[in-house]
Amino acid sequence: MKRIWFAVMFLLIAVGVCCFEQNYISGFCDEMDVRADKALECISNNDYGGFIKECDSVKELWRDKNDILFALSGHTQLDELSIRVNALPSRTEYLYEIKSIIRGYRENNKIKLSNIL
Description:
By secondary structure, the chain is mainly α. Helix content is 85%, strand content 0%. The protein has helices at residues 2-44, 48-72, 76-86, 94-109, 113-116. The longest helix is centred in the N-terminal third of the chain and has 43 residues, at 2-44. The mean pLDDT is 91.
């Protein structure tokens, strides 16, 4: 009987960790996408002060979240994202690449049968 309770507790913990991981990654991707959009909007409006501020907010978000992200998932896409984020604001085209990497990262970390098998 103790083994059954252990198995139930283990499954509950596993489901809890999976839910935390999905929520954390989804929240990070949504926030990074919004901040990159704001920076692109500033550059299209020729607001270079706002662009620098938004690029700094992208870097700040990355610094706040990267440790847990590296613990939760593979490093290949996160390493690419790190290079792009750290090159801001000198390379404005990296904002488009950041948005692309974020979309791919979100899709690769969704719980789907194709990702499990």
